[in-house]
Amino acid sequence: MLFLDAKGAHFPALGLGTWELRGRDCARLVEQAVRLGYRHFDTAQMYGNEREVGDGIRASGIRREEVFVVTKIAPDNLAPRLLERSVKESVAALRLGEIDLLLLHWPNKGVPLSETIDALVGVKRDGLVRHIGVSNYTVALIEEASRLSGDRLVCNQIEYHPYLDQSKVIAACRKHHMAVVAYSPIAQGNAKNDAVLARIGKAYGKSGAQVSLRWLIQQGVGAIPRTSKVERLAENIAIFDFALTDAEMAEITGLAHPGGRLVDWAWSPRWD
Questions:
Q1: pTM of this prediction?
Q2: What is the reported pLDDT for 22?
Q3: In-domain check, residue 261
Q4: Domain holding 78: CATH number?
Q5: Which of 8, 26, 201, 219 could form a disulfide with 211 if both were Cys (CB 3.0 to 4.6 A apart)?
Q6: Rounded to the nearest 5 degrees, what angle is found at the Cα of 39, between the Cα atoms of 36 and 41?
Q7: Average pLDDT of 79-101?
Q8: pLDDT, mean of residues 135-162
């Protein structure tokens, strides 16, 4: 397993995303993921499954300090009092002690960023979380949030896969020594059937999805693929026994196109 390091945060580059996982199925899948070697788990207030993620980790019997748990504050909870209350609720739901990494899930134009960042820094200072960061932040937002936080932000979680060019945002993150973690890293399943990725993977005995994940990891970018199937859990983590060539990396990068973004909501910022 490879790790990401940013401002004191040290966590596995590959994790499990849990969006759309619910109830006992979510808890069982998380438990199985621990047994397969996963140590990085991503949830969010908006997912409604923080309790089940915590249940699965505890059921696995692993020591708390061996896993890195991420959750994200819903955009409706970014006003200071709401933020603090919601984080305490997340801590209580997870029942794992302090949260390893807390992210602002989406920007909210209705709440001054200065107030939100002050509150985010406050819950870190109060010991509710170990590290803080953001998600779905653009170059301009990264600059503003980094300044307001005193450069305390350790991560920006963004949509990133072979069909979406995120070079500007990644450059801004690296300027501020922030880790980048990709959600939808196999383009919500589209990478599995891509002819280019399949051809490249064939030489290594790997699937198109595995090639997509390896492409991210070799850039020093984390990835949190989501799956509801145990066999996919095992496949997604089996990407550390091969390496793509520079030519293959460049060919995969060339798959990006203007319509590649998959996640875009009414509340989304103006993307770079």
A1: 0.98
A2: 95
A3: no
A4: 3.20.20.100
A5: 201
A6: 110
A7: 98
A8: 98
